[in-house]
């Protein structure tokens, strides 16, 4: 079986979410879970200023487009292409062109999720950056930012330093 890739589908403007829901219903009805893996309308959280009040809102990153992670074959092509609101795949003629891994990574797809294997009080060694080879005890962990804080002695005083999970390892 071939490998699943990301494809871009062009839709009528404003129909992106409807197309996503319709394709997901078709996947359910035709039992295509193993061929069409994910349907996505990439969103970006932006701050809007209305009447002097800042409010967070979700905006579509690519209005008029839906991303689909699927194994391309005649059945999946037919299902997606004949979904109401879809005008076609992005690519020359009727031949869909998959997105590359670099393109998907730049959109935030396919990123590995980093899980903290650290706890407050663990002794760690810094493996990269300005504090390379520094040893310290974990003082706090921020899962959201994927960082932890250690105290480093600098000029005779303890100074907190924030480091990414990728820059440290447990001793």
Descriptive notes:
A 5-stranded antiparallel β-sheet has the order 10-9-8-7-11, with no helix packed on it. A hairpin with an 8-residue loop joins strand 7 and strand 8. The radius of gyration is 23 Å and the shape is elongated. The chain folds into 2 domains: 102 residues, Alpha-Beta Plaits (2-Layer Sandwich), CATH 3.30.70; 48 residues, SH3 type barrels (Roll), CATH 2.30.30. It has 171 residues and is an alpha+beta fold. Helices cover 17% and strands 40% of the residues. The two termini are 43 Å apart.
List keywords for this structure.
2 domains, about 170 residues, 3 helices, Alpha-Beta Plaits, alpha+beta, 11 strands, SH3 type barrels, 4-stranded antiparallel β-sheet
* Termini Cα gap: 43 Å
Rounded mean pLDDT is 85
Shape: elongated
Strand content: 35-45%
Radius of gyration, whole Å:
23 Å
Order of helices and strands: EHEEEEHEHEEEEE
The CATH class of the largest domain: Alpha Beta
Q: CATH superfamily of the largest domain, please?
A: NusG, N-terminal domain
Low-pLDDT ranges:
none
CATH fold label of the largest domain: Alpha-Beta Plaits
Which architecture of the largest domain does the CATH hierarchy give at level 2?
2-Layer Sandwich
Tally of separate domains: 2
Walk across the major sheet and give the strand order. Answer: 10-9-8-7-11
Main sheet specs: 5 strands, antiparallel
- The total beta strand count reads 11
> How much helix, percentage-wise, in residues?
10-25%
Number of helices: 3
Structural class: alpha+beta
């Amino acid at each position: 079986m071939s490998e699943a890739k990301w494809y871009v589908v062009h839709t009528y403007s404003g129909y992106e979410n409807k197309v996503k829901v319709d394709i997901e219903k078709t996947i359910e009805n035709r039992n295509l879970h193993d061929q069409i893996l994910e349907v996505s309308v990439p969103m970006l959280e932006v701050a809007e200023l209305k009447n002097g009040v800042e409010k967070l809102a979700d905006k579509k990153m690519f209005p008029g487009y839906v991303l689909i992670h699927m194994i391309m074959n005649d059945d999946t092509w037919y299902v997606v292409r004949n979904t109401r609101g879809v005008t076609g795949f992005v690519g020359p003629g009727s031949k869909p062109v998959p997105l590359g891994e670099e393109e998907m990574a730049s959109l935030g797809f396919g990123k590995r999720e980093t899980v903290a294997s650290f706890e407050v009080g663990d002794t760690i060694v810094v493996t990269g950056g300005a504090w390379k080879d520094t040893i310290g005890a974990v003082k706090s962990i921020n899962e959201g930012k994927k960082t932890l804080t250690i105290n480093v002695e600098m000029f005779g005083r303890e100074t907190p330093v924030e480091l990414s999970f990728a820059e440290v390892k447990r001793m």
